Amino acid sequence: MKTNYIVLFAVLLLASACSTDFLEKLPQDTLSPEAFYSNGDNLNTALTGVYDALQSENNFGKLAELDGITDNGVHFKYETELISFAQGIANANVTQRFATYYQAGYQLIQRSNILLDNINAQGSILQTERTAIEAEARALRAIAYMRLTYLYGDVPLITKFTQLAEIKTVSRTPKAQIIDFVLSELKFAADNLASTPYNSTKGRITKQAALAFRAKMLVYEARMGNKPWTDALTAVNEAVTVASAAGADLYYSATPTDGVANFEGLFSLAKIDNKEILFAVKNNTLDKGTNLYTYFAVGGGNLSLSVHTNLVADFYCTDGLPIASSPLYNALEPYKNRDPRLKASISVPGDTYSTGTQLLAFKGKATIGVLQTDFAVKKMTTTDGLAQNQGQLDIPLFRFADLLLLQAEAENEVNGPTTIAYAAINKVRKRAGISNLTAVLNKIDFAAEVQHERRVELAFEGQRWFDLITLKIADKKINAIGELNRKFVPNQQELFPIPQTELDINPNLGPNNTGY
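Now predict its structure.
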């Protein structure tokens, strides 16, 4: 979608320091929505503006950031609110990420709403294209609501473009209603989209992507006891079937037995749009996204996220056993014979790292003073050789591997650890280069292995926080870390606070979430 650029109204709706700027009317010296939508041929341009909102680091541009409040990592210096939250300290007087996540979500929603309000604008556009645009806009809006409701709980459900005066009076909609809305919208999208992007435009959401997001939400809800596991399994299986028929599969490098190459290649510029990516935020050299290298890589300027030692320890050995029980583990050479995803996802002592002009030895936190542990994020921060990711790398929002692990989980919950469940998880493990799970586990132990597999496979892809919360294990996992003052407060920190700035503008958004 980045081949066209929105130049009329969408860019003007970018969220700013004022939490309501993106909801206000357009400046009088720009083309009004009425004039813009007098020509239905502009609907495609408007849709590009909706996709553009995905790039924001406050939506999906910095996926690794949320891992910094989980058991995967910890922030340093720059994100003071996230640092305090990770230490069990949280309040509603937020102006950084907890406020901007909220604002950016509604920025995307409002862009979708104004497009959908005008979806029947007159013009030469074909009805098939108009239907696709509507389905895509509704899917993207649903994804924004999915993120908002799992971060903030009850949030206002706004389905029409809303002016500032009205936005000051809206109330929060119960989370259960938001969930049902999202599920319905994603079903509409799946029913009206093809399994190939419309007009072969890379980056546009497809039928299988809509089904995958819907399946994930049903898994989340089943975990929390709000929806039946049978519904989740049916949705996951449908998504797997449709995606597979469309050619989706796990990515393998030219050397398929090289687990590191398989995993690194999956996220590389050279293999962009590979068959494993069900949906991604599209970036390129002309329309760049967030510079992940600068924020997270060892050679970057900020290095604002350190990787927890306990995550490194959680990567198995290549025999598929934890380091505590594997005969392959040697404490004197702790990174030898390990799950290849460790070296592909995390910079560990003994690695080399790129400055853009040379390769240097990485010696852990002794190398870079701001590192809080000996480990830094590697996934998605570098490309080939000495090159650095400067924001042109696509950001995957849903991979086929994620869908396979959801299938293994849902199948186990409904039918126990069947051959279907083992096949799904072992397919992911095989690509990584570690041994299969042996089919002798009970339901509880198999579920634990799926949780483990999701942690190491999806680390720094923005999934861990939502897994911890919906599985109801955040208290157990985070408070067991025992390093860097980590703390999780149960019955409070499952949700973020509604920003006080929003409550000041609109008291109808209160009372705030429990504990704030």
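Confidence is low (pLDDT under 50) at residues 1-30.
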